[in-house]
């Protein structure tokens, strides 16, 4: 038995291998009951690797059951097998689908609710960088988040018999300021911020019982970073490769675990709605947006 602590909330959790004995299993079960997200059901898009994998794991570590959605079937199966070993097979559900398809995503939400008996936490995380195929970038990064948010509300809002809950939409630092080597990516991430803020206000006024927040990390250590300087994805901005590299050096590269701990803050802090949490090497802070007056 290995006892570890989530650095964010100091919630104890137990990692349990298949060879553990009865009393240890009982202790593991009792510890799970004490966790902050015990009894909660989460759904994460783009869960197979990178940040989505980190978000899924921190949700599991804090007691939630998690539906893992990804277009990458092979990667999803590898992750599901690893999670089964660590947390037990009944804690996750693997659903292969693309956020570009209304039908596939709708089906995945329904299967999650049918399997786990409800839905409390949704993380719209799937995203790509592709300045060449810019329509696909918009389709996944912005349209996929809109689709995921609307489906989440259908299942979670109280007027539909849902339990309420929280949606975290993954934007970026490039959703708050320009990443000059990736203007389409920048536009989609600004779009995620604008859409989520408006939806958060609507949710509050309509009393849906659902909080909607945005996560805005700087560069993080995932395979997406290779897109910054690849011919295939940088498109006409490949000549700015040097500037992009310099920016990455200046900003630094975040560990996935650090981004995941800040994601958990947005999930658990019930005072936060319509807020963007910016995560940088020097720390995390909530964004102050300009106040508009009529
Ligand atoms: N890595 C970074 O520096 C940062 C990433 N982000 C954002 O975090 C999110 C996750 O990115 P990373 O983990 O870094 O990238 P990643 O490339 O490591 O993982 C993305 C995952 O999304 C999946 N995916 C891609 N298209 C999909 C689709 N159409 N439907 C379902 N799943 C799909 C991929 O198969 C993959 O498993 C993205 O929205 C990205 O824009 C934000 C700030 C920094
Ligand atoms: C392209 C794929 C790689 C990563 C995408 C990911 O979402 C990460 C984004 C990280 C950084 C975004 C930067 C945004 C920059 C700005 O807001 C600029 O206005 C500021 C530019 C330079 C500031 C230099 C300085 O004074 O520190």
Automatic annotation (TrEMBL):
Gene Ontology terms, MF aspect: 15-hydroxyicosatetraenoate dehydrogenase activity; 15-hydroxyprostaglandin dehydrogenase (NAD+) activity
Any GO CC annotation of this UniProt entry: cytoplasm
Keyword field: Fatty acid metabolism, Lipid metabolism, Oxidoreductase, Prostaglandin metabolism
Enzyme kind, highest EC tier: oxidoreductase
InterPro entries to which the protein is assigned, alphabetical: NAD(P)-bd_dom_sf (IPR036291), Sc_DH/Rdtase_CS (IPR020904), SDR_fam (IPR002347)
Entries under Pfam families matching the protein: adh_short
Keyword Lipid metabolism included in the entry's annotation: yes
Domain of life: Eukaryota
Catalytic activities: 15-oxo-(5S,6R)-dihydroxy-(7E,9E,11Z)-eicosatrienoate + NADH + H(+) = (5S,6R,15S)-trihydroxy-(7E,9E,11Z)-eicosatrienoate + NAD(+); lipoxin A4 + NAD(+) = 15-oxo-(5S,6R)-dihydroxy-(7E,9E,11Z,13E)-eicosatetraenoate + NADH + H(+); prostaglandin E2 + NAD(+) = 15-oxoprostaglandin E2 + NADH + H(+); resolvin D1 + NAD(+) = 8-oxoresolvin D1 + NADH + H(+)
GO biological process, one term: prostaglandin metabolic process
Keyword Lipid metabolism: yes
EC code(s) of this entry: 1.1.1.141, 1.1.1.232
Function as written in the Swiss-Prot or TrEMBL entry: Catalyzes the NAD-dependent dehydrogenation (oxidation) of a broad array of hydroxylated polyunsaturated fatty acids (mainly eicosanoids and docosanoids, including prostaglandins, lipoxins and resolvins), yielding their corresponding keto (oxo) metabolites. Decreases the levels of the pro-proliferative prostaglandins such as prostaglandin E2 (whose activity is increased in cancer because of an increase in the expression of cyclooxygenase 2) and generates oxo-fatty acid products that can profoundly influence cell function by abrogating pro-inflammatory cytokine expression.
Family: Belongs to the short-chain dehydrogenases/reductases (SDR) family.
Xref: PANTHER family: 15-HYDROXYPROSTAGLANDIN DEHYDROGENASE [NAD(+)]
Protein name per Swiss-Prot or TrEMBL: 15-hydroxyprostaglandin dehydrogenase [NAD(+)]
Organism: Esox lucius (Northern pike)
């Amino acid at each position: 038995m290995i006892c570890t602590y989530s650095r964010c909330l100091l919630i104890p959790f137990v990692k349990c291998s298949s060879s553990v004995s009865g009393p240890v299993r009982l202790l593991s079960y009792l510890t799970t009951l004490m966790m902050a997200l015990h009894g909660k059901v989460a759904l994460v898009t783009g869960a197979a690797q990178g940040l989505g994998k980190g978000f899924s794991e921190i949700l599991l570590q804090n007691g939630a059951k998690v539906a893992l959605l990804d277009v990458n079937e092979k990667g999803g199966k590898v992750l599901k097998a690893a999670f089964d070993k660590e947390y037990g097979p009944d804690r996750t559900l693997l659903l292969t689908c693309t956020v570009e398809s209304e039908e596939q995503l709708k089906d995945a939400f329904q299967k999650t609710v049918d399997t786990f008996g409800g839905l409390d936490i949704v993380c719209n995380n799937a995203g790509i960088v592709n300045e060449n195929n810019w329509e696909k970038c918009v389709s996944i990064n912005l349209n996929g988040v809109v689709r995921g948010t609307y489906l989440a509300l259908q299942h979670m809002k109280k007027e539909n018999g849902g339990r309420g809950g929280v949606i975290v939409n993954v934007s970026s630092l490039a959703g708050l300021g320009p990443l000059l080597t990736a203007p389409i990516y920048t536009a989609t991430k600004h779009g995620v911020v604008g859409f989520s803020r408006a939806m958060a206000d609507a949710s509050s006024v309509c009393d849906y019982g659902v909080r909607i927040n945005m996560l805005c990390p700087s560069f993080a250590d995932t395979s997406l970073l290779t897109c910054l300087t690849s011919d295939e994805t940088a498109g006409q901005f490949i000549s700015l490769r040097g500037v992009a590299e310099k920016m990455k050096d200046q900003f630094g590269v975040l560990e996935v675990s650090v981004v995941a701990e800040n994601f958990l803050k947005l999930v658990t802090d019930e005072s936060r709605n319509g807020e963007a949490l910016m995560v940088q090497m020097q720390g995390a802070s909530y964004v102050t947006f300009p106040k508009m007056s009529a």
